[in-house]
Amino acid sequence: MTAPMQPLSDSALVERMMSGDEAALSTIYDRYSAMLFAVILRIVRDKQIAEEVLQDLFLHLWRQAAQFDASRGSLAAWLMVSGRNRAISRLRGRGSREVLEEEEGLYANTFLSAQNVEEEVSRTELRRRLTDALFRLPAEQRQAVELAYFEGLTQTEIASRTGSPLGTVKTRVRTAMQSLKLILR
C-alpha cells in the first residue's frame, strides 16, 4: 500500500506554472476559485461579471506568476487582494478588458481536474479560520474590514457611510489587518 501523496505547496505550484505547467494552474484554481468567486461576487453583485473578473484574475496569474513573492505573504492573500482590486476596478468602470486570442490556447486544457476532497476540506478550514479571525476583532475594526474587502468601499466611502473620521477608518483598517496577520499565523 502506497502512502498518500502530499498536496504541493502554493509556492511549488507557482514555480511549476512559471514553467508552463497548466495542471499547476488548475490545482490553484481548484484550491481558491470558490473563495475568490464569493468575495468578487459580493463586491460586483453580478454573477457574470464576477465570473469574468475571476477568469481575468487567473489569466493574470498564469501570465504574471513571477510577480508572486512568497516572502511577502501567502498566495491566497495575494489572490484575494488582487481579486478584490480587480472587482473594484471593474465596478468603477476602470477595468481593462483583456481579449483572449484563441490561438494562444491558454484555456484549452485548463481547469479540468476534479475537485479533491482534501482541497475542499482545506478551503473550508481556511474559510472557517478567516471567519473566526474576523469575529475576534473589535466590532468597529471588523466593520471597516468587511466594508473595504467584501463590499469594495474605499476608506473615504467607509468614513462617509459610518460617520467616522477618515483617520479613524484608516487606523481601524490598519490595526485590523495587523491583528488578522497575527491571528492567522
User: What are the low-pLDDT stretches, counting only 5+ consecutive residues below 50?
Assistant: 94-116
CATH class of the largest domain: Mainly Alpha
CATH superfamily of the largest domain: RNA polymerase sigma factor, region 2, helix turn helix motif
- N-to-C terminal Cα separation, in Å? 35 Å
Number of helices: 8
How helix-rich are the residues, as a percent range? Answer: 55-70%
**CATH architectural arrangement of the largest domain:** Orthogonal Bundle
Mean pLDDT: 79
Number of domains: 2
Shape: globular
CATH topology of the largest domain: Rna Polymerase Sigma Factor, Chain: A
Broad structural category = mainly alpha
Topology, number of strands: 0
Radius of gyration: 18 Å
Detailed description of the structure:
By secondary structure, the chain is mainly alpha-helical. It has 2 domains: 10-119, RNA polymerase sigma factor, region 2, helix turn helix motif (Rna Polymerase Sigma Factor, Chain: A), CATH 1.10.1740.10; 136-185, Arc Repressor Mutant, subunit A (Orthogonal Bundle). Helix content is 67%, strand content 0%. The protein contains 8 helices and no strands. Helix 1 (10-18) crosses helix 2, helix 2 crosses helix 4 (75-91) and helix 2 runs parallel beside helix 5. The chain is globular and about 50 Å long. The relative contact order is 0.11. The model is unreliable at 94-116 (pLDDT under 50).
